[in-house]
Protein 1
Amino acid sequence: MTEVEKRRGAAPVPRDWTYAPAPESREIVALHERYGLFVGGEWLEPTETYTTVSPADEEPLATVAQATPAEVTHAVAVAREAFIDWSALPGSERAKYLFRIARILQERSREFAVLESLNGGKPIKESRDVDLPLAAAHFFYYAGWADKLEYAFPNREPRPLGVAGQIIPWNFPLLMLAWKIAPALATGNTVVLKPAETTPLTALLFCDVVCQAELPPGVVNIVTGDGAAGAALVDADVDKIAFTGSTEVGKAIQRRLAGTGKKLTLELGGKAANIVFDDAAIDQAVEGIVNGIYFNQGHVCCAGSRLFVQESVAEAVVDKLKRRMATLRVGDPLDKNTDVGAINSRQQLDKIEELVAAGRAEGAEIYQPPCRLPERGYWFAPTVFTNVAQSYRIAQEEIFGPVLSVLTFRTPDEAVEKANNTPYGLSAGVWTEKGSRILWMAERLRAGVVWANTYNRFDPASPFGGYKESGFGREGGRHGLAPYLAGAVQ
Amino acid sequence: MSRLPVKKTYKLYIGGGFPRSESGRTYESQGQNVARASRKDVRDAVVAARAAQPKWAGATAYNRGQVLYRIAEMMEARTAEFAELVSGRAEVERAIDRWVWYAGFADKLAQVLGSSNPVAGPYFNFSIPEPTGVVGIVAPDEPPLLGLVSRLAPAVVGGNAVVALASETSPLAAIELAEVLATSDVPAGTVNLLTGFRAELAPWLASHMDVNAIDVTGADGLRSDLERAAADNVKRVVAGQSDSQGLYEIAAFLELKTVWHPIGV
């Protein structure tokens, strides 16, 4: 072994200097001890409750409501009553409420970012720089549509549906709320939204914003709870269900709604291919791979969890990737240096551990950079598997954690075939310097979003949603209005 | 001496060919023995559709439009034959005009349904409609020809391949249509037509894991069951009208793909 090779094998992190901790203060967040249900502009005392914790250290944060079916039914009835006046309001007035909400979110963004990281475990860097700016931008974008719907769908006389039941996941709690509520309100619907069981707090803080914006009571209603509360919402007298979450639950909802005539949009799981060609800018691609899978601990439905590298550069890319992984800082979500935060829940950690064990058992080679994980809380080190076959569970099933599977290909045709070889079809990434190849690949990949020379980018103007078992319907852009309107076309 | 006419055997239309049902069974309808397709015929039709779909979707929109127009031309020549099998000449003429209307939409869909999206960043971001893949259609019993064409044409114009269950009570027009399709430059397997019992066939089509969307317009009492089965692989469920024409009918069978293309030097 030469000197150079020896050095390459060693941990590249300098030992002599370390980062000083730079935690964001929690003081800006004033947590209540107990939260009720936000219905008709008021807080209702719940009959049942549970405790929500910080996944970083399992510290109990607050007691929140576990909505019962009767309470969910009541919230829907209140939303239905509010629909009469809200839908009759001129679009230009609805727009102004949404603009107000966008502005308040911008103003209070630090408070929301800290709370998001506290309750969900994501790095403050991400909640501050991604979740909050995008959530505010989403309200701003859809505010502008509220009085322009006839331009979006000419000659269709678009009309609101009524009450939308919305069920959102725990990976981007406030951003998913924005994706759901902004288009629903802009089109004149009222909503009953159920945040994820493990991350209710930013949605509950959002109720404050709703009051501050003087939104008419009952237009936005928030009911917290577990899957049973979600099921109650699906069964309630709503006109539409919008769900973001796992494919398994999505299928259950689709079955439950069969024959009811209620409208449905689903944004479900993914197993996205991130494809690196030999002519790609390798350093840039490695950053994209890291962002694709380790962003938000891999708790991203469109995460680039299958890396396809062209055989001729596979070794170089994987080497660089491993070295880059060793520089990722895992730890306190509130620390501004942190790149990878806490796993969202015990349950999710169990699932990640199970699939990683399956990967080892099936014969894949595992690499995890040396990093010390906190003793309390839910943690998982950034992980990459090489020597992965397409049939392995880690190449087929959504892990929803910081775990990457590396596979190789020789020709563009082979890349397309392997990339499309899953029941999912949410997103894909292509890395190449050749513009014509980007478009050739984009045409053939069966996925709702294709990123070229970038990954995990979102914008309110850009429609997002899946093919195949990743769901149907789009969120974002003009197309994101259609699921909330009668008489509208995609 | 009078000549003995040559009678037609009514068969299925799968992969561009006219096979009998794999089961060998028939049923009587409109005074004729008609093939009674089986679960295996559904399977064969889905395989044929899946194989044909990429090529049909890969044809230029202009070309797909011309092929659809060719269907109208071929039907026009058989107006009299069709008229005897359905409610009359008016239904046939409307069905022909429907093909013409959709033919003209083939190369406008991307412009009407697509968009370029002004994102905050150095990317040209655009959205384009694409076919969903293989579509199962449960055609209504009535009107037997116009109902089938009203569901079939919007599905194929966007580049999908179709497996359609014909009207159970009046299936002969569907078979006549199959003969038109077979001589209209529609690539083999792009459209597959099955005759038989809806209650026997539709559940297989709705639960098939390689079908991307199911049109339940003609499902009648089966609708709830079919919608439930569709969830097995998150099928798009389309419930239209047996006699409507519009952009929505097309869009219901389309996906939307968004591409972030870098801008730089």
Note: The longest strand of chain B covers residues 123-131.
Protein 2
Amino acid sequence: MYDYLWLIPLLPLIGALINGLLGKRFIKSEKAIGGIATGFMLLSFLLSCKYFFQMLGSEAKVFEQSIGSWISVGQLQVNWEFLLDPLSALMIMVVTGVGTLIHLYSIGYMHGEVGFYRYFSYLNLFCFAMLMLVLGGNALVMFIGWEGVGLCSYLLIGYYMEKKSAGDAAKKAFVVNRVGDFGFLLGLLTLFWTLGSEHGVWTLNFVKISENAHLLGTGSIVVTVITLCFFLGATGKSAQLPLYTWLPDAMEGPTPVSALIHAATMVTAGVYMIGRMSGLFAMAPTTMMVIAIIGAATAVFAATIGFAQNDIKRVLAYSTVSQLGYMFLAMGVGAFTGGIFHLMTHAFFKACLFLGSGSVIHGMHHGYHHAHLDDDAQDMRNMGGLRKKMPITFWTFMLATLAISGFPLLSGFFSKDEILWWTFASTHGSWMLWVAGFLAAGMTAFYMFRAVSMTFFGEQRTDARAKDHIPESPWMITLPLVILAGLAVVGGLVGIPEVLGGSNAIHHYFQPVFGQASETYHIAIKEAFEGNHGLEWALMISSVLIGFTGIGLALFMYIKRPDLPGKFTAKFSGLHKAVFNKWYVDELYDFLFVNPTKRCGLFLWKGFDVCIVDGVVNGVGRVTTLVSSGLRYTQTGMTQHYAMWMVIGVVMMVGFYIFG
Amino acid sequence: MVSIDQYLVLSAILFSIGTFGVLTRKNAIVIFMCIELMLNAVNLTFIALSNHLGNMDGQVFVFFIMTVAAAEAAVGLALIIAFYRNRDSIAVDDFNLLKW
């Protein structure tokens, strides 16, 4: 049926190999390299579409495909297998669709860059890894993709190799991810071992895990430990507290990279993983609570930092962390559908926002280049009034910002409200979490409109020599913006809740994936609230109101009375300093982890490797020299002395023979 | 009759004297004479034991030893002459170039 499922990840891999191996010397034209990369992604997207619609039309919703055996050692039997079900079908659509658009965008954005072929090779490689992750039929194939996206993230963040800050950011991303991967691996191993040794089910296959998870015992310590370990992996990959510090630094990479990896795909891997193993997580209410709390905390925490950033990409980075917090909040209260729904809408509007900021930066660079200045093209304090200069960018950015702020009827509104409803009313939710989500929604609206106001409205603060040379971007950049903005507007219509007269199509779509676990473990809207349309309306209206409050406040403070922010900062300078410096979390981690590790490494190098290991090796040499310098005096050159030694030897031998 | 012990002890004494001479004397010719003394001590041992055990093998072996001794003396004296031509001395103390 879905016979060429394996082709979906493979096509980008082929593109990566072609560009990587042949790109530098043989295919030098930019159009060809970009065309190859985008072409393979487009093929992958078309195939994903075909299978998606095929699945919509068919009865059977779960399809497994095994290519061959990979590991076969005793009880560990792992195959190269892929799993297609509603969840992975949606994910491959998002990954390949948004991916193709970003590839197209990159051809325009990365024009003239030195390592053009390298960029596209890595980008295709990333898509291969991400597709392996979402299509993986067992935890190890998923782990290949998991590690692969981390690797490609490192390669792409450090794309501008000559900049030290880029290299540092890449290393930071990889190391922090690694801490998470450690958790993932622990969870995987514990799961395999416990299911196997205690229940005789030796498997890492997702379908079999879902079938047999109940053997581990609902709410048992084992299940809690396993799921917490997996969640640790998710916090690393999806930048939640405490492992989020790499994401803002990752903005050192090119903007399309930020859009693809750090907005739409890689960072959503953690959310996807929880969705994929929802059967397991549903059994551990403690973990679900931890996930919800951390998600809510991250959402609020990151939003506060977004208030004070001046670099447009940093604002979007913290926004991503915050929105991911929403997704985890959703997964934690049992709104698996809501979480994945928000993942999809977020992919649309956040990618649009990042690409839009890229378009702005591209224009600013053009202006500064023209005027031979090297001011920071990403600093919003250098922008302003750009809506007349870059109309398409402005309108798409505006639509995406409205979407993220939860403006009614746009995509973000539906997904966010689904999450907030479940947070309040689900059996695993609580009103306190709802308050956090509610506040974060308001804060999101505020800082996003702050960004829009500082960038597109008001006086143009750009240096006079450059301000008239900021053009709208070429079609390869603006077309993806338009498409993504369109999706950000209509993407929510698949999830219109019943209270508004819709059929909540997406909930029914995910029924085969999440339905059973939710039923078995009683994850649903509390009976008291079920069907309480009045309450739903109330929550919806309050979140819309706080969204409007945020928007209004931002527009007021940054367009009407631009002197206000300055006064505010001066009055609360301590608080502002703390928020601007990201609450000093990086400094805290440096103190707690990074510096001790560095000192440990220094000790192991200077103290252990140089002194002890080299000492031993050199010492052997020195001892040999010493002994030999003592022994050489036996070689006197006089034959009689040698003859004497021979006699002594013979006497000793005879003595041993007679007396020994 | 003189017992076998006395022959063997005599032979041992002669051998020791010879060894002592080889290890101690400076003159190369004297060292060679001491070597001859050691060989002859061994000859005596062989003869005594041959008589004691009633086996002719010992006496035959003595012939071999005497032949070897003769040949060795010839070669050895040639060596000493070569040494003398190089170093104007036959004191073995002087031949110590291979020292540390």
Note: The longest helix of chain A spans residues 585-631.
